[in-house]
Amino acid sequence: MVTASRVQLTVLRGRDDECRAVRSLLDGMTNAGGALLLRGEPGSGRTTLVGYAHRHAEGGCTVLAGSGLAEEAALPYAGLQRLVDPVLDRAAALPGEQRQLLRRALAGKS
Of 43, 55, 96, 104, whose CA–CA distance to 76 is shortest? Predict the structure, then answer.
């Protein structure tokens, strides 16, 4: 029988610049938020860097991550919908104008 190890790597070798960018964004987080785009070919370590961001987010900071699908490229706001779906229950706390804009975008209206 083979069992999986529960050891979690916390150091990413050879990724100092990327880890520094993630930590810088998280350390400077304000109520205004922030964004970091990770691009690369399959197997380039994007998911590992997103996991790093999740592990290093502190306090009330929420890390959202989304990935696009080629099939959805023509659908308006498909990426936004995938990104905010996990926190959509918090939309009621947004100021009225922002809440309305979000609802319109998720309904596919510009």
Answer: 104
